[in-house]
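Colleagues,

For the teaching module next term, I've prepared a clean inverse folding example: a structure given as tokens, and then the sequence designed for it. I'd like students to try predicting residues themselves before seeing the answer, so please don't circulate the second half yet.
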């Protein structure tokens, strides 16, 4: 998941919030891991004050749970949590792609088609290690075409947590990567045609397939050590 650039004048606790979020995705802090203020302060070479503020921000994002006088715990993901998040994600991404059909520009379509080509290439490579990076790159860009930064900000930290969960199973690809590519092409064609119903249907199908893939991982394979 691409890291967002943080302006240099951003307060320390906000920069720390971003860094901890990225490190959770990278597996530095595993899901379910207990984090103390002291441990984080030593690791990031900052005082306890910005650490506490960063953790409070991450609690608001849904990424950690604060413990009274005991730091925080990185949220773990169970089946119920995963399903609740994907219910919300499906509603928000469907809304965004419907709006994108009306708002997208020709220049943005060129970008979307370029990202689609990258994703389709990853779909064709057996055991591609960059499959999910290419998938996220395309769909996150399409989300931006709906011109609703607030909706994206609601999804982003939860997407990070879900990505950390996916990565905990090690390198893997879906069972039917070619179908993922064909679904993505249907979505881009709907954007080109400005057809919101077709775009919404393609997006809903994609979100459901991602949900099912993660649920299958949960039931079929233990996370990597």
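(Answer key — instructors only)
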């Amino acid at each position: 998941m691409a890291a967002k650039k943080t302006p240099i004048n951003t307060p320390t606790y906000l920069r720390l919030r971003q860094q901890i979020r990225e490190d959770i995705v990278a597996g530095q802090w595993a899901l379910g891991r207990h984090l103390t203020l002291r441990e984080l302060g030593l690791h990031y070479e900052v005082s306890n004050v910005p650490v506490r503020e960063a953790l409070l921000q991450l609690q608001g994002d849904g990424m950690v749970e604060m413990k009274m006088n005991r730091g925080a715990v990185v949220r773990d993901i169970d089946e119920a949590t995963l399903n609740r998040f994907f219910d919300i994600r499906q509603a928000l991404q469907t809304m965004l792609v419907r709006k994108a059909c009306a708002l997208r520009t020709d220049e943005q379509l060129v970008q979307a088609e370029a990202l689609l080509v990258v994703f389709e290439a990853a779909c064709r490579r057996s055991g591609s290690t960059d499959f999910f990076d290419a998938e996220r790159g395309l769909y996150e860009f399409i989300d931006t075409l709906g011109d609703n930064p607030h909706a994206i900000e609601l999804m982003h930290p939860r997407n990070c947590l879900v990505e950390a969960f996916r990565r905990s199973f090690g390198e893997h690809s879906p069972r039917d990567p070619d179908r993922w590519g064909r679904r993505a092409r249907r979505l881009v064609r709907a954007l080109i045609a400005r057809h919101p119903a077709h775009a919404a249907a393609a997006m809903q199908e994609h979100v459901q397939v991602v949900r099912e893939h993660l649920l299958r991982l949960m039931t079929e394979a233990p996370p990597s050590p």
